[in-house]
Amino acid sequence: MKLLITGGTTFVSKAAAAFFIKNGDEVTVLNRGSREQVGGVRLLQCDRMALGDRLRGERFDAVLDITAYTQEHVLALLDSGVQFDDYVLVSSSAVYPETNPQPFREEQACGCNSIWKDYGLHKLQAETVLRERVPGAYILRPPYFYGIYENLYREAFVFDCALRGRAFYLPGDGSQKLQFFHVEDFCRFVRILLQQHPQERIYNVGNPETVTVKEWVQLCYRAAGTEARFVSVPKTVPQREYFCFYDYEYVLDVSRQSALLKDTLPLWQGLREEFTWYRDRPDSVYFRKPYLDYIDRELKNR
Fold first, then answer.
1. Is 139 within 8 Å of 127 (Cβ atoms)?
2. Which residues form the domain of 235?
3. Has this prediction a pTM greater than 0.85?
């Protein structure tokens, strides 16, 4: 396939570029060229909000829009003159209000989520304008992505605690549920959509099973070759000061996805792969939050 991928140098978009190159596809990436490119891609170096005529007359089998966060991002691409057969937009589970019944289903009403606020609203606006302009576009609503090329301080934070032999400061009893989706499973599912062209156009994507925060931390420590020790932090302490996820539990119904993607990578296996990658490239995670500083300053002597 001939693909256009927005981004291509950070986490999900980088993983997608690497995946489709490895599978023999012709990949063009659209980014500002500020970071190292995946080998084998064709680079269109520009800001997506200042495309000019860079895409006019270009034709692709599919556009994988992984970096659109607003309706303006989508419109800039659609108005660029680019031609395509399929369009896949990575949206977010943040489009579901937390007041919806869970697990969230694709046919539920979308709207403001008080946890994600403008991020979710902007993603929803991006979905809406795309569906108006390209009714046949595919829209994917993931939970938390994980895997190699991760640039956020999530798994890496837990890996750092494990590598330094630290006890882990756990929110409450650690029973909060999390749902993940490996970046390669995401790429596999996109390939299925582009090959099979199923009738449904909106998909929740993610692992069918959830995991508690405590279980996730244990798996991260084991990926690093050790066992976790825990210190429970009371709910009165703001969770985002010392932990990498909001105090917000939700579950996506991914039965539509599961009808097409029959299996997903076991979480323990994906975390082992990510740990090995991170151990050799610790500087790759550049959005580091000062969780450890807060723990050492505010929590250790409580």
1. yes
2. 155-179+208-251+259-299
3. yes
